[in-house]
Amino acid sequence: MKDDYWRVKMSKLRPLEYIFSITNSGTDKLIMFLGIPIRIDRSRYYKKFCQELDIEKNKIVFCNFKGSSYGCNPKYITEELLRRKLPYDIVWLVRSVKKEREKGVFPDNIRLVGYGTKQALKELASAKLWIDNQRKNYFIKKGLVKKEGQYFIQTWHGSLGIKKLDADVEAFTNEYKQEWVECSKYDSSTWDYLLTNSEFENKIFKRALWFNNEIKQFGHPRNDIFFKNSSKIQDKVREFYNIPPYKKILLYVPSFRDDGDIECYKLDYKRVLKELEAKFGSEWVCIIRLHPRAKKFDKYIIPECENIIDGTFYPDIQELLVSADVAITDYSSCIFDFMLSKKPGFIFATDVEKYNTDRGFYYPLEQTPFPVASNNDKLIENIQNFDMTKYQQNVEQFLQEKGCMEDGQASERVVDLVEELMKK
Questions:
Q1: Residues with Cβ < 8 Å from 212, sequence gap 6 or more?
Q2: What are phi and psi for residue 401, nearest 5 degrees?
Q3: Which of 93, 164, 304, 305 can pair with 168 through a Cys bridge, CB separation 3.0 to 4.6 Å?
Q4: What is the C-alpha separation between 328 and 272, in angstroms, rounded?
Q5: What pTM does this model have?
Q6: What is the per-residue pLDDT for 161?
Q7: Distance from the first to the final alpha carbon of the chain
Q8: Are 122 and 100 in contact (CB under 8 A)?
Q9: How many CA atoms lie within 13 A of 399 on its CB side?
């Protein structure tokens, strides 16, 4: 696996790089000197280091999007653990311990550890349970090996998503991605349980994520928020962005493009806000939530004008979703969480054919409950013609067809499982 990867790497070196260059990948270091490759594999040390650590039977290590903020499914599982006052050592891996503590988002009784550090590897190697919403390829390359007596609950991060995943995407599985494919397959083999919310996800996740262990159709813990009183959260979001109570909120959440294209982000904000005001009344603001991989283009995508707010780095998108009165996306799966609120959702996708070729869909956009537009004129027309009764009927039908069972109790089910595993 690694030999093939490095052969591809070497084939891409520029002439001067054959004379002298250093390339790193995980624990591997490739040194080219006068055309002679010298590869140093440092993973043996880390593997030995991990294997020698004893398992601490009350420790759980959480991670959200490779050390990102306190959010998604891991957050809501943690909140339920804390609500039950269970005596566990709860560790979260984060990109910057100092910055996260300064933000004050994490509860004080959670231990924060730097994501890319040796200490993070030590915490994982000695924990009884891992809970994550993404792959652990980074740590696998570092030498992490799951031991007998350790458990891994994979929560994943999509919901009834329309975008194809991993094994189903040709661009993710070509010859240049073989190291990633093999590492991802190994990662999937370490998952003891995978959370889903529907018969649709059961089928897709097993194949696309190379998963062969036990699926737990518990629902997604992050979606419990749509079944509870959300007034405090709505007040929190409005206070954070200084949005007065008489203004309604449009949440725009475009997805990223693998090729870095930004021409697709052409939403006519002023026109859309004006049309929402005409259709639903009140004044409106727009919170734009860019994907982290598109944040570097924010000055080209997010206009500096009144009633436009950059919400990219708000810690928890679920709180933005539950606070929004209307949501617009192109292909982000967050719209399939938002539909649980039964509030209006729209799709604005200017590059459907190209995206379908590059990434691919599991079903056509037109099969979702959301009115679809490929340009601003059509989006305005969809807002003008929006029928709330018909939309909510379509949402119910869609959820039934996908076999969705979200009911607001997913976190409780997961923590019941956690307690069972921690007693083993």
A1: 188, 189, 206
A2: -65, -35
A3: 164
A4: 10
A5: 0.88
A6: 81
A7: 35
A8: no
A9: 20
CB atoms within 10 A of CB 300: 11
Q: Which residue has the tokens 């650590």?
A: 53
Which of these, 420, 381, 73, lies nearest to 224 by C-alpha position? 73
Question: Which residue type is seen at 314?
Answer: Y
Coil/strand/helix, residue 267: coil
What is the rounded average pLDDT of the residues 27-56? 75
| Distance separating alpha carbons of residues 106 and 224, to the nearest angstrom | 19
**Two tokens, residue 260:** 């870095």
Instruction: Note the Cα 11 to chain centre separation in Å.
Output: 33
Q: pLDDT-based confidence at 158, cuts 50/70/90?
A: confident
Q: What is the dihedral of CA 327, 328, 334, 339, to 10 degrees?
A: 50
- One-letter amino acid for residue 252 of the chain: Y
**Angle in degrees, CA 43, 48, 54, rounded to 5:** 135
Q: Is 257 helix (H, G, I), strand (E, B) or coil?
A: coil
User: What CATH architecture does domain 50-223+408-422 belong to?
Assistant: 3-Layer(aba) Sandwich (3.40)
Burial label, 250 (beta-carbon count in 10 A; 0-12, 13-18, 19+)? buried
Both tokens assigned to 420: 């069972």
Tell me the longest C-alpha to C-alpha distance in the chain: 71
Closest CA to 270 of 248, 286, 247, 258: 286
Amino acid letter, 177 = K
Spans of all domains in the chain: 2-41, 50-223+408-422, 229-401
Domains 50-223+408-422 and 229-401 share a fold: yes
CATH 3.40.50.12580 fits 229-401, yes or no: yes
Per-residue pLDDT tens digits for 70-107: 999 999 999 999 999 999 999 999 999 999 999 999 99
Q: Residue 189 is encoded by which pair of tokens?
A: 């083999």
Our measurement of the distance from residue 246's CA atom to the centroid of its chain's CA atoms, rounded to an integer in Å, reads 32
